[in-house]
Amino acid sequence: MFNGIFIEKDDAGYRASRQSIDEAALPEGDVLVAVDYSTINYKDALAITGVGPVVRRFPMVPGIDLAGTVLASSHAHYRAGDAVLLNGFGVGEQHWGGLAQKAQLKGDWLLPLPSGFSAWQAMAIGTAGYTAMLCVLALERHGVTPDKGEIVVTGAGGGVGGIAILLLARLGYRVVAVSGRSTLHDYLLGLGAAEVMDRTLLAAPGKPLGKERWAGAVDVVGGTVLANVCATTCYGGVVTACGLAGGMNWPATVAPFILRGVTLAGVDSVYVPAAVRQQAWQRLAQDLDREKLQAMSREIALSEVIPLAEALLAGSVQGRVVVDVNR
Q1: Among the residues of 29-158, which ranges form H helices?
Q2: The whole model's pTM is what?
Q3: Which domain holds residue 305?
Q4: Which residue, 68, 73, 89, 164, is most buried by CB atoms nearer than 10 A?
C-alpha cells in the first residue's frame, strides 16, 4: 500500500481525496518509481478540483511531474537505483501521475535526473520551469536577443512566469512583469524584472494594433491579455504562448501578423521529443539561478495538496510549490 491523491468520478460525483492505494492497482508500465517529490501546477489544480476537463480516465492519480528513484525496471535504459524525472506525456490525465508515493510508468517518458539537480530542485522547476525554458528557447530560435528590446512576461506571479523572469533576466533581457497582484511588486523585482505592470492595462479589450513596445513575450494568460500583447509587439517580434489562465478564447485580429510580421509561437510541454527536453533541462542547469529558485519555492506535504489546488486556481499562490509525497 502507498499514499496518494486519488480522483474518482461516479454517480456520487467528482471528488479528490488522500487515500491509501494498493500497489496492485497501479497501471501498466515498465518502470516502477518510488516518488520523492512532485509539484502542483495549474493543470493539476484543474484536475483535482474538477474545474477543467483534464482527467480523461477514472480513477486517476493526478500530478504531471515527479522525481524519484527506480525500484524495478524492464526498460533497457533504466535499472533499480536510477534517479529519474518526468514531465507531461499525459501523466496525471490519462495515466496515474506523481502525486503519490509510487508510480508505474513507461520508461520512454522518463529522463535521467539532470546532473547537478536534486530531486527537490527538479520539482521546484517542474513543468512550469521547463515550459518557461521552452519559451526562452523559442524566442532565441526566432532571433530575439537582449539588444532587440523588452520582453513582457504575463502571469508573472505564477511558476512559469516567475522562472521565465529568472531566466530572461540572467540572460540579459530587460523584463517587464505583468501581474494582477500589487502585493507581488517587490517579489517580481527581486526575481529580476526591471518593471512591474498592472494586468488591468492589458485585460480590457483593445485595438487591433497598439503602440509598439515588446520585442518578445512569454504569455501564460491567453484571452484578451494575449490579444493585447500581440497588438503591442514590435515589428518582427515574437510572442510565445503557453497558457490559458485568463481563458481559452482569443479576441484578436490578424493585424499584428500581416502588418508587423509578428510571430505567435505556440509552446507545448507535454509531448515534446526527448532531444528537446534534454536541451531544455541542460539550459536550465546552465542558466537558472538556483538561489533565487530556492527563494521562490516552498514545500508542502501530500495532505496539503487538495486545499492548495483551490488557492492556485484563485490566483493566490506565489511562485513554485514542491510536494513531499512521503509526508
Answers
A1: 42-49, 119-141
A2: 0.94
A3: 2-113+296-324
A4: 164
